[in-house]
Design a protein that fits this description.
The protein is built from three helices and six strands. With 133 residues, the protein is α+β, with helices and mostly antiparallel strands. It has one domain. β2 and β3 form a beta hairpin. The radius of gyration is 17 Å and the shape is elongated.
């Protein structure tokens, strides 16, 4: 038990009803989307608290929290500037807040931003954060 934190990317495929050759089929059905695991943290409550407070109105209910490129850039700045305030919770553990933990989080968010920016024609992408405990 404990705080598990996920950054997920959804890739929505645009249906090409005018050109059936372009419609992707999987297991006999039209493929509408794909879900990607963009990042994972184990027990980093300070990061979790920052995201919940700034992008979920302080409501911590394990729901999906959509994050834009700008919001992820804000998170990166907060990590760089040591603006993640101490967050506690049942089975949350403690954030280490050392260089390795910071670099790991920053790298995940940079890659997620890059993934959003590479959005090819024929699809649109979204990123969301979700915690589980």
């Amino acid at each position: 038990m404990g705080l598990d934190m996920y950054l997920t990317g959804d890739k929505y495929l645009i249906a090409h009803w005018d050109d059936p050759q372009k419609i992707l089929i999987e297991d006999g059905f039209r493929l509408k989307s794909r879900r990607l695991d963009l990042g994972y943290w184990r027990k980093h409550p300070d990061l979790h608290g920052y995201i919940v407070e700034n992008f979920a109105g302080g409501v911590d209910d394990c729901r999906e929290i959509d994050l834009s490129k700008e919001q992820m850039r804000q998170i990166i700045k907060a990590i760089h500037s040591d603006l993640l305030s101490k967050t506690t919770g049942f089975f949350f553990g403690e954030s280490v807040n050392d260089a390795e933990e910071k670099n790991h989080a920053i790298e995940i968010f940079h890659k997620a931003i890059q993934w959003l920016e590479e959005e090819p024609s024929g699809e649109w992408r979204t990123v969301y954060y979700q915690a589980s405990w």
